[in-house]
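In this supplementary section we document a worked example of the pipeline. Step one takes a protein sequence of length 149 as its only input; no multiple sequence alignment statistics are reported here. Step two produces a three-dimensional model, which step three serialises into structure tokens for compact storage. The input and output of this example are shown verbatim.
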Amino acid sequence: MPWDMNDYPSSLKNFNKATKKKAIDIANALIDEGYSEDRAIPIATEQAKEWYDNASENERYEYTEKGDPTKRKSHEHSRPELLDKPEMVIPYEDNKWAIQSKDAKKPSKVFDNKDEAIKYGKKVAKNKRTGLIIQKVDGSKQNQIDYSE
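The serialised model returned by step three reads:
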């Protein structure tokens, strides 16, 4: 069952509204990706705090006022087998860069530049304790980083 602003893990109870909402959104997305609640909650908590620290006052306000946290879509199926797969930084349409788990059907996030994609990919790969494969524009492998230890 997805969490919302009325039903969420007790570890989030003392957070401000913006951080709590962001943590709920991240935790719901991680659960959808196959993470256990025991792993999803601390990851979501850390990432929500980081987002809050880096977001402008206006960004926090806009995010908080959007309504309830994103609802999980019942037609989307999680693929827990992707948790063991490395993340990939791949060239994407319109000269953009995407982060995608190896063997995933679609990217998890798209960026305007490669450096942002690599930074995000490292964070995801570290959280999953897998690796990061960075491709060149032509799709060949540029670099590979192991975070499994």
